[in-house]
């Protein structure tokens, strides 16, 4: 039980020593440095520093006598103070991480390749890429096996919602879909996203060796989605590329497909 309590207090921001001193003061009422050393079991040399930190957190009180004595405040007040400190730390951490995440990259750009597995991880990566798009988004989803995957998972529903947000921000969006996608009850096919260019790839030309789709963002990064449709539900994986050279290779084939497609008839 004691170990569980110490672990719980650590999750609220206390160190192991701080948790042990707090527990000792809560149990025995009050004490000086020597008392706390004996009751908590932590090294005497560490007691004063721990007490200073607990006092800074506002969860113990100090009686300025000789020697000084210390006591814990009521448990409900301890938890309330720790919750406030924890929530402040969460907000500060999130704010600072967001600034770092969205800050311009000041380092030397390096090409990168990452493999991603699982429909949730792939979808999360797609949404992340769309969020960071600033100029143009290209989505090639003409491969039949991707159709099967979108029937099993809500990938396209999430993507279309995000695409509409980016279009509303003024970004250019180009999409190619298969004739099958244009026929089924699908947001892109049945209700084209306002402000985007959608083309349909002819069925007679859709015998692609690849199984999946491609997303290109600002000519800077791309995601190649691969679908294994031999199993049910299909398995979705992806490879992410960061680099103008890699993007240019895939962009060439996407442009060929785009030119061979016809505008979607609503």
Features:
alpha+beta, Endonuclease, Chain A, Arc Repressor Mutant, subunit A, elongated, 11 helices
Question: If you had to describe this structure to a student in words, what would you say it looks like?
Answer:
Helix 1 crosses helix 2, helix 2 packs across helix 3 and helix 6 packs parallel to helix 8. Strand 2 (60-63) and strand 3 (69-72) form a beta hairpin. This protein starts with a helix and ends with a strand. It folds into two domains: 2-93, Orthogonal Bundle (Arc Repressor Mutant, subunit A), CATH 1.10.10; 113-263, Endonuclease Chain A (Endonuclease, Chain A, 2-Layer Sandwich), CATH 3.30.870. It has 266 residues and is of the alpha+beta class. The protein is elongated. The longest helix has 28 residues, at 75-102. It is built from eleven helices and eleven strands. It has helices at residues 2-11, 16-28, 33-40, 44-56, 75-102, 119-132, 144-152, 155-168, 179-183, 187-190, 244-260; strands at residues 30-31, 60-63, 69-72, 112-117, 136-141, 172-178, 197-201, 212-217, 221-228, 235-242, 262-263. The strands form two sheets. An eight-stranded mixed β-sheet has the order 4-10-9-8-5-6-7-11, sandwiched between helices. It has a three-stranded antiparallel β-sheet with strand order 1-3-2. The relative contact order is 0.11.
């Amino acid at each position: 039980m004691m170990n569980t309590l110490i672990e719980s207090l650590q999750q609220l921001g206390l160190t192991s020593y701080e948790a042990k001193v707090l527990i000792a003061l809560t149990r025995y009422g009050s004490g000086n440095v020597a008392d706390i050393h004996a009751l908590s079991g932590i090294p005497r040399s560490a007691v004063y520093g721990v007490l200073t930190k607990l006092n800074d957190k506002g969860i113990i009180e100090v009686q300025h006598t000789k020697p000084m004595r210390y006591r814990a405040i009521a448990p409900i007040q301890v938890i309330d103070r720790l919750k406030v400190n924890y929530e402040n730390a969460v907000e500060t951490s999130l704010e600072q991480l967001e600034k770092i995440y969205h800050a311009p990259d000041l380092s030397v750009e390096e090409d990168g390749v990452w493999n991603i597995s699982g429909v949730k991880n792939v979808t999360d990566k797609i949404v992340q890429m769309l969020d960071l798009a600033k100029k143009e988004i290209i989505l090639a989803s003409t491969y039949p096996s991707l159709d099967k995957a979108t029937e099993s998972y809500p990938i396209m529903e999430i993507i279309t919602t995000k695409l509409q947000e980016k279009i509303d921000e003024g970004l250019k969006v180009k999409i190619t879909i298969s004739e099958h996608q244009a026929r089924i009850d699908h947001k892109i096919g049945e209700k084209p996203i306002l402000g985007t260019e959608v083309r349909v790839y002819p069925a007679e030309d859709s015998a692609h060796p690849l199984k999946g789709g491609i997303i290109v963002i600002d000519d800077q990064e791309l995601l190649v989605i691969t679908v294994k449709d031999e199993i049910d539900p299909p398995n979705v994986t992806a490879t992410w590329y960061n680099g103008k050279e890699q993007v240019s290779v895939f962009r060439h084939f996407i442009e060929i497909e785009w030119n061979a497609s016809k505008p979607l008839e609503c």
